[in-house]
Structures are given as structure tokens and as C-alpha cells.
Design brief:
Layout: H1 2-18, H2 23-42, H3 45-113, E1 120-123, E2 126-129, H4 130-202, H5 211-239, H6 249-257
Antiparallel strand pairs: 1-2
Helix pairs in contact: 1-2, 3-4
């Protein structure tokens, strides 16, 4: 029966696709919906519970996806922290070089302003011209600015990763609570189904489609047929019996002797 309903639903789905937007298509959609509802009503509660437990187990796959995403993001987060530390360290080193070059170039410029010629700039263990010193200083400043911008972007990325990791942690915890709640709800539903099955078995009337219900229904029908046959036989026998046959005189006279008076009795005259 269920296979037939499913087949009809599939055929109806194809028809709906072909007649979409038409009045006939609306009728077909209603029929398909009715068939689908009928097919769902034919599913025994035990099979529905089994399906629900399968769906809950499938939640583990979604849980695993969240865990994998969380693990990957935590790894990326660790690499970003290392990147931030490296950039911060590099920025500090470049800042020292930049300040040293700034000091050296300023000193050379003061000498040039004082009238000294062929002024050189001392950068570490090297002596370069003032123009070269300015170029070296400009390079250090550009490197410092690039590192500062890169560090700012990397820190923003680290903060964003932290927020995402927090959300994934909450999802992972929510999966555990959700699965527990769903398992408990399905257990309660299964308990109610078993209780209903027991009540059905103990009752004279059953509304399910089990073998016991079919047996009880057959017994009830057989009892009904026997009762009708007994009544038919009694009616036929009474039709062939003469009036008054088998009755006593008292039973025959009962309508007269047991009748109540219809007029009130006259009270006896009172004597002085």
C-alpha cells in the first residue's frame, strides 16, 4: 500500500511540474499533498521512531563538520598569533634602525649647515654621504610604515578569528545539548508508543493495524454474525407458534388482573 502511494506521489510530482501554474496543476498538487499525507499516516510509530533516531545520529555528521572547522580555525589562529609576534618584533627592530639613522642624518645636516663640506653620515660601521644617508633613512621609514600597517591588519584578522572561534565553540556545545534533548524526547515518545501498544492489546477495540487487532476484529465480526443468526432463528420460531401457546392462565390474565384502577376509590362513610 505504501509503495503504491509513493509511486502515485512521484507520478503526481512529475505532473505538477508539467502543469505548473494551471488550474489543473493546482488540483494535482492537492492530490499529491493528500497522497503524501496518506503515506505518512501509514508509517507505523515504531518505524517513525527508528527514522528519528537515524536523523539524530546524522546530527553527529554536522557536529563533526563544526569540530573540523573549529580545529582548522584554531590552527590558523595560532599561526596568526605567531605572525603578529614576528611583525611586532620586526617593527621594533626597524624602529631602532630608523631612529639611529634619523639621529645620524640630523647630525650630518647640522654639520652641513655649519659650513662643513664633504659631510658623511655614520650608519653603524659604515660612512655614507648625506644624500645616501637620507635615502637609507627614507627606506627605513617606509619599511616601518609597511610593517605597522601589516601588523594592524594581522591583529584585526586575529580578533576576527577569535570571534569566529567563540561562535564555533558555542555551536559545538549546543550540539551536545541538542542531541541530549532530542534523545530524551524520542525516548519519551517511544515509551508512549509502547504504552499505547499495551493498551491496544488489552482493549477490546484496537485502532492500529497489528495482527492482534485484526484477530480481535475478526472475533467481533464472528460474534456479530452469531448474534444475528440467533435472533433470526428466535423470530422465525415465534412466527410459527400459536398465540398463547406455552403460557399459563395467570400469564394470559395478567393484563387484566394486574391493571391498576383508573378511578379513585370512594372512601367509606364515617360513623359518629
Amino acid at each position: 500500500m505504501i509503495k503504491k502511494l509513493i509511486l502515485m506521489a512521484v507520478v503526481g510530482g512529475v505532473a505538477v511540474a508539467a502543469l505548473k501554474g494551471t488550474r489543473v496543476g493546482s488540483f494535482v498538487r492537492n492530490e499529491v499533498r493528500s497522497l503524501r499525507d496518506a503515506a505518512e499516516e501509514q508509517v507505523p510509530p515504531e518505524k517513525e521512531i527508528a527514522r528519528l533516531r537515524t536523523e539524530v545520529r546524522n546530527l553527529d555528521q554536522d557536529h563533526v563538520k563544526v569540530v573540523k572547522q573549529l580545529a582548522r580555525l584554531q590552527s590558523d589562529q595560532a599561526e596568526t598569533r605567531v605572525r603578529v609576534a614576528d611583525l611586532d618584533k620586526r617593527k621594533g627592530e626597524v624602529a631602532e634602525v630608523m631612529r639611529a639613522r634619523e639621529t645620524a642624518v640630523r647630525a650630518a645636516e647640522e654639520k652641513a649647515k655649519a659650513g662643513e663640506v664633504n659631510v658623511s653620515v655614520t650608519l653603524g660601521d659604515q660612512n655614507v654621504s648625506l644624500a645616501a644617508g637620507r635615502t637609507r633613512l627614507k627606506d627605513a621609514v617606509q619599511t616601518y610604515v609597511d610593517l605597522d600597517q601589516n601588523l594592524t591588519r594581522t591583529r584585526a584578522k586575529l580578533e576576527s578569528q577569535g570571534r569566529i572561534v567563540e561562535q564555533l565553540e558555542k555551536q559545538r556545545a549546543a550540539f551536545g545539548r541538542l542531541k541530549g534533548d532530542l534523545d530524551a524526547a524520542i525516548d519519551e515518545l517511544e515509551e508512549q508508543v509502547h504504552a499505547m501498544n499495551l493498551a491496544q492489546m488489552e482493549s477490546r477495540y484496537q485502532t492500529d493495524d497489528t495482527r492482534a487487532a485484526q484477530i480481535k476484529e475478526s472475533i467481533a465480526k464472528a460474534r456479530k454474525r452469531l448474534d444475528v443468526q440467533r435472533r433470526e432463528l428466535a423470530l422465525l420460531q415465534s412466527d410459527g407458534r400459536p398465540a398463547g401457546a406455552g403460557e399459563t392462565v395467570d400469564e394470559i390474565m395478567a393484563p387484566v388482573t394486574n391493571a391498576r384502577p383508573t378511578t379513585p376509590a370512594v372512601p367509606a362513610a364515617q360513623t359518629d
